[in-house]
Predict the structure.
Amino acid sequence: MMNSKQNFQITFIGQSFHVDVFMETGKPVYFVHLSGEPLFLTQTKGEDGKLFWTSVPEGRQALAAEIGALIEKVLDKPKVPQLF
Amino acid sequence: MCYYNGIRVLHSEYIRLKSLERVVQTLRTQLQRSIQSGFAYADWPIILPINKGADFQIDFAHWEFIAPWYHTFNELEENRKKFNTLNARGESLLTGKLFKDAALKRRCLVLSSGFYEWRHFKPAGAKKPIAYPYYISLPKQEYFFMAGIYQPFTDRETGETINSFAIVTTTANSLMQQIHNTQMRMPVILPEDLAWDWIQADLSPARIEELAKYMLPANQMQAHTIHKDFRSSQLPEEHYHYAELPPLSY
């Protein structure tokens, strides 16, 4: 069961989208409320040891990389996302 | 070494991501359906016991208990206006003809992250009470369980077979009395240990009756007003303030 919800907004192609954050298997999973098909994404470690963003399930890698970068910018800001 | 989304990942990460897929797959439909009116008669995720309650599976079922005497969906739709079977009163679950068999043999859990209810209040100057929508949830709980009963149904013309279900309701607690102040009812929301009990096959009728009337204490729930157009909102659960509405007392 997912838990530990936080949320924030990102701006993607000129529009603001809501992002929910869940802790699952000890790591955050991001649920982006895109207006069409919503996107779940998380960060994982590649063979080279570097972190990368991936969609869950597979199949939307390019979008996950693009939106993941936007999420990183929000998370890097020195503020605490709104806690429920 | 395995590939995930075309990128090589460690085996342990692959297992985590595949495990995560299952969680996402199970929950995404519900997350996308944060607003679901029962009157849409759509499918909804429910937890069904298997192996006499030793384990469970998540399935999608039609929210509207379909009485066993119906033969086709057309017949159901023609008779729908006569009575509403979205909910089943917990107090009479074992005494009424319609729900008794399901209550004894086919109990399930309905997954929910929150629900909507209307509070009727007459502001100064208004001619009649106005309905204000509320979003009700459980603090620090992403999901919770409502008691349900289910009934398989096969359309005898098309052969289509589905599960249908009703949410069991009980007397409103002190919080819900203030919100659902016309009906004074609320869903039976079961804490995890009672939810597990509810889907056990060997439950006695006395215990079924007891759980079917369970009233979650008001201090374990939270509620806030939302916009009247919440059904068409991207953020339906977002708080909306109505200055004329007195606050709820907890």
Notes: The longest strand of chain A covers residues 3-12. Helices of chain A lie at 61-76.
